[in-house]
Amino acid sequence: MIRVENLRKFFPVQSGFIASLLNRGNIPTVKAVDDVTFSIRRGEVFGLAGESGSGKSTIGRLVLRLYDPTSGRVVFDGIDLESLSSEQMRRMRSRMQIVFQDPLASLNPRMTIGQAIGHPARIHMPELSPAERRNHVMEILQAVGMNPPEAFYDLFPHQISGGQRQRVVLARALVTSPEFIVADEPIAMADVSVRAILLELMMKMKEEFHLTYLFITHDLATAKYVCNRIAILYLGKLCELGPINEVYSHYAHPYTRALLEAVPVPDPRHRRTEPMPSGEIPNAINPPPGCHFHPRCPIARENCSIQEPPLREIRPGHLVACHYAEELLK
Amino acid sequence: MPEDILYSIRNLTVEYGTRAGPVRAVDNLSLDIRRGEILGLVGESGCGKSTIGKALMRLHEVPARITAGELWFDGRNLMELPAGKMPEIRGAEIGMVFQDPMTSLDPVESILDHLTETVLTHEPKTSGAAAKKRAEELVERLGIRRERLKEYPHQMSGGMRQRVMISLALALRAKLVIADEPTTSLDVIVEAKILDLLKELQKEFNLTILLITHNIGVVAEVADRVAVMYAARLAEVGTAEEVFANPKHPYTQGLLKSVPNIELNSAELYKMGGQPPSLLHPPKGCRFHPRCPLVMDICSKEEPEFEPVIGDHLASCWLYQEHEGRGSSERHEVHNA
Fold first, then answer.
1. Strand B208-213's sheet: what is its strand order?
2. Is the per-residue pLDDT at B319 higher than 60?
């Protein structure tokens, strides 16, 4: 359904006027996304995981063309998004939506819930009369479990709970009947007891509305419950990609191993067995040469700092970018 | 107070004045922190856990007010100390580590200045050179190279800043460190390393740590004992092994089942119905009863005591307490839960 090819996004680093004169034509850039290729199948939940600064949210925005890529392309349902005019892109947007982490920041505090959800419908479905639109919003509210919808329609975002706000944001995303939703850390702000309910709701909506999700998260434990396939990012590059159970039980990249090992397990008898990689994720302005992970990698060898490992298929459907992936594979 | 208890919270009540009336964020809560332990205090947002952390150092600010209770720290009731004496205890005897190190550190002071200032404020007789030496030893122990002492907070990564915060808490050999969500803003790999560090320090310095967090996994990794809070009160307290293996309170049971566990292969998470109550109008009786799958008649009428279920494992739940109308079928239900 979606194909991302050699996608790159470099952000120029802000610098002062004098510095930019001195460095003319040579402005440093943050390589947020660097040559990423993957595709998302219709009807699947594709997970994108990594630490902060790995470029996962940037990819989410590039896929929706909320950012223009530095190079590379995004093909949605056979259409290269870059070839579209802004008017065509505007119409395309009704088919793709995004849900952000912080529902309070995503909702206009001066719009009622009914107005907020009805807003995209007003833009993308001008054929609806105000009464029809109201009915449509009510139906969607009911679908996301806001019952009775009349009780919520005229409330403002601050008058409902955080979990309900995230339902409203989801309802707003669903109102134009999209096929594809980018969910950027959709439950990170919610409390534990609310998270499970929101996840279930998202999965229910997926079935009901035949959706495809790009699920962006830093939480590998949650990803395990919802994703069909997952891609692990490090400093703007893909380390590993494959079906979720394959990646979790037969990981072949040392970074994936470290990430999985670091996830806190809610069981006091559980003990970590692998030592954690040294240091922290470096700055993406000057990423290390060769494999980006090599300075922190426990199995790095000489050529890791010289040669960049290609993303290659190590088992069916399981791709990994490491010269020594076979050594880790279980 | 028994020797093995470092901090004893007795019947603490903290209220916030709001336009709609006073809100009890901590309601008549008693809890002991034992010497040398890591006590994990868990609960969802708004349950009052951070309010406790602040109240323990009397750091709460208007509109919060301690309206009742005693705070026994190392043999003294801090509530009876004049407010002017508190700064001597804060930092020196009780250290604090917050979630966001960037807002807790002074952006225009180097790390070295932070540390020496802390030492010299509390121990004015120390020479500058001795304070510097102490700072160097301390940060190296915490995994920061001593050359980095001259750097400023913005030059360090989140994990390094949190190490600086811990070193500040330890600079005066505090007996108790209150860590409020110390790893919440960090990535998992850095988080794992900070948690390992806290455990090492606990052993090495015989440190007592109150770890306040919403993250059940973090508590399982490091805590010796766990206290679970719900709506301004304690639901359950026990050793980490006991609470995770045999949770007694239905809230704890639900909470543990709703946490994603990467080690398990189950496809489903438990979904707890409802949401935490407003503390302006908490439900009558047990505060969890509107959401409780095992609710009984008495739960909505009377509040259960917070008392031992077995040994060291306490819970406030009618399932384990004598009351009228209790039948054998209910007992049966408990065992299946």
1. B94-97, B176-180, B208-213, B38-42, B225-230, B233-239, B313-315, B307-310
2. yes
Residue B66's nearest CA partner among B110, B7, B24 is B24
CATH architecture of the region B5-93+172-336:
3-Layer(aba) Sandwich (3.40)
A267 vs B220, B255, B272: nearest CB: B220
CB-based burial of residue B266 (10 Å sphere; 0-12 exposed, 13-18 middle, 19+ buried)?
A: exposed
Among A265, A272, A274, A293, most B C-beta atoms within 10 A, so best to mutate, is A265
Q: What is the mean pLDDT of residues A274-283?
A: 83
The SS3 assignment for B99 reads: coil
| Whole-number Å distance between alpha carbons of B196 and B207 | 14
- pLDDT tops 60 at residue B182: yes
pLDDT tens for A287-309 read 899 999 999 999 999 999 999 99
Cα(A16)–Cα(A30) distance, integer angstroms? 16
**Segment B41-58, tens digit of pLDDT:** 999 888 999 999 999 999
What's the mean pLDDT in A135-151?
Answer: 92
Angle between helices A192-209 and B250-257 (to 10 degrees): 50
**What single-letter amino acid sits at B113?**
D
A77 part of contact set with chain B, CB < 8 Å = no
Query: Alpha helices, DSSP H only, in chain B?
Result: 49-55, 86-89, 101-104, 111-122, 128-141, 158-170, 188-205, 216-222, 240-245, 250-257, 328-336
Instruction: Kindly determine whether residue B244 and residue A161, on different chains, have CB atoms separated by under 8 Å.
Output: no
- pLDDT tens-digit series, residues A192-223: 888 888 999 999 999 999 999 999 999 999 99
Residue A269 with chain B: CB contacts under 8 Å: 241
* Dihedral angle computed from the Cα positions of residues B4, B5, B6 and B7, in that order, rounded to the nearest 10 degrees: 180
d(CA A206, CA A282): 36
Q: Of A62, A8, A52, A40, which Cα lies nearest the Cα of A215?
A: A40
**Is ipTM > 0.90 here?**
no
Q: Are B48 and B229 in contact (CB under 8 A)?
A: yes
Question: What average pLDDT is seen over chain A?
Answer: 91
Give the DSSP H/E element, type plus range, for residue A203: helix A192-209
A236, pLDDT greater than 90: yes
Residue B259: count other Cβ atoms within 10 Å of its Cβ: 22
- Beta bridge partner(s), residue B41: B212, B227
Domain segments of chain B as ranges: 5-93+172-336
| DSSP designation for A134 | H
Any A CB within 8 A of B200 CB: no
